[in-house]
Amino acid sequence: MSIKRRLTVSARTVYCSIAAQADNLGDIEIRRALLTRLTDAGFRLVVFTGTMPASYVEAYRLPTTTRLTSNSLEFQARFLRDALLGRASLVFSPGPYIATGGAGAMAKALVNHANVRVARATGGKVVAAGRAYRVDSKSVGRLERSSLRRFDLVAVRDDVSSAEIGLPLRREPDLAMLHPFERPVEDAGRYLAVSLRSDRPVSLALLEELRDSASEQNLQMVFVTQVKRDAEGHRALATALGVGLVDWLDEPHAHQESRVLEVYRESAVVVSNRLHSILLASRSGAVPITFAGDGTHKIASTLGTEFPLRLIHVNTDGVLAKGIDGSTLLRREDRDIDALERAFTEARARLNRLGDDLEGCLRG
User: Fold this and answer.
1) Does the reported pTM lie above 0.85?
2) Domains and CATH numbers, the chain
3) Residue numbers in the chain where pLDDT is lower than 70
4) Cα separations (Å) of 5 from 1, 2, 95, 350?
């Protein structure tokens, strides 16, 4: 490679977006993991923030060299200018991408497709990591598939995306598993952490069973609000059950994250139908439990069969199915922690290899 070419490569700027769900700590976790890898590698970033509030953006802890813009036209203009100078690459953020119908979804897909083509035509790289694809609109899905064929590297987090999009895609763990496993200290584990989606109700009778079974294991049930829109339901359930609550407070995202993680570190078990509640708690040694059924397919398809995930089976009355002992379900032993440590250690190694590949691709 010539000196001129090396200088051009080293001067390339990475364009990406963190505009997502501002009320969801999991969205911050996976995007921050990717951007931290890029900034640690020395890449200069231009980051689109959209309408995200200041405390959401601050939670990413981006270096001062990062260029932030909330204006989509400014972001697009900067990208086109740098691309025409041969100095722009694109990184598509992790998380779900649903190819829905409608003019807005098609317009967004068209802009992304055009940007991909521009980046590739001007010598830039295009990569994506940690994505999960779902296709509801055939026309938008076809356009997304056409874009993906032009990517230099694509890694998805689940075993469904390839079939959904119609392309063989590289499968890697969710980026929340890049964080080192934190083996709990002895005697840590006094909570049963519960974090429930507001759009998938769980029967009060089942939660009463879990609370009573937790008490038999000397565990205190506590509802943990990792997504703001779950807060109202958590407040009502905590009051009805007479148990603890980590509410969503009017404070910076970083403070909310700190309070959530503090409880997870002291939890022996986590029960949740949210993927990143499962991951953020279990990486500190909490035994992960979710609910059997189609409503948690996102969790099962992402974590796979080798992750030590327990399932709660319920009967038609919404309580524990016959033959399931709540105390046994909620018991944590050293072998459970060992299994989690192995799962996270292996996932982190795979993600570090993915990071090396991403870095090499963007420098290429």
Assistant:
1) yes
2) 3-178+346-363 (3.40.50), 191-342 (3.40.50.2000)
3) 1-11, 294-296
4) 6, 5, 34, 31
